């Protein structure tokens, strides 16, 4: 498996992964960020297995194909995103994915919104 920046031409498979995780991410935004090397994808056998969309130093969206979850793909995407942001990586997320971020060296704090948390990669 290879982790690399997405090319704008790869928007359909990237959106397929993000949509499959029910993430509300605008396709035009993903296209623009891919032009700025702010979209990382996990690829194996020419198939997009996961995607991580950055907004500056923050993870805007991260998803892995349902059948490939639990195989370390999300972890590798976060590690590459952290390297791309010189280790100053942040995320805001729902409580149901808190275990994922907690397992990845994120310091986690609650936000003012119910069921929402902020994390900073350590």
UniProtKB/TrEMBL annotation:
UniProt-listed PROSITE patterns: GNAT
Gene Ontology molecular functions: acyltransferase activity, transferring groups other than amino-acyl groups
InterPro entries, alphabetized: Acyl_CoA_acyltransferase, GNAT_dom
Record keyword Transmembrane helix present: no
Annotated N-acetyltransferase domain residues: 1-122
Keyword Transferase annotated: yes
A Pfam match: Acetyltransf_7
Entry keywords, A to Z: Transferase
The protein's name in its UniProt record: Acetyltransferase
């Amino acid at each position: 498996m290879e982790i690399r920046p997405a090319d704008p031409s790869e928007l359909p498979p990237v959106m397929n992964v993000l949509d499959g995780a029910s993430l509300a991410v605008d396709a035009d935004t993903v296209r623009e960020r891919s032009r700025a090397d702010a979209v990382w994808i996990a690829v194996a056998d020419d198939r997009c297995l996961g995607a991580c969309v950055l907004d500056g130093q923050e993870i805007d969206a991260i998803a892995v194909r349902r059948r490939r979850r639990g195989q370390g793909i999300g972890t590798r995407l976060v590690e590459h995103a952290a390297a791309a942001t010189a280790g100053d990586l942040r995320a805001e997320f729902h409580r149901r994915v808190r275990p994922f971020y907690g397992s990845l060296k994120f310091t986690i704090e609650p936000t003012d919104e119910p069921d929402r948390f902020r994390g900073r990669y350590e």
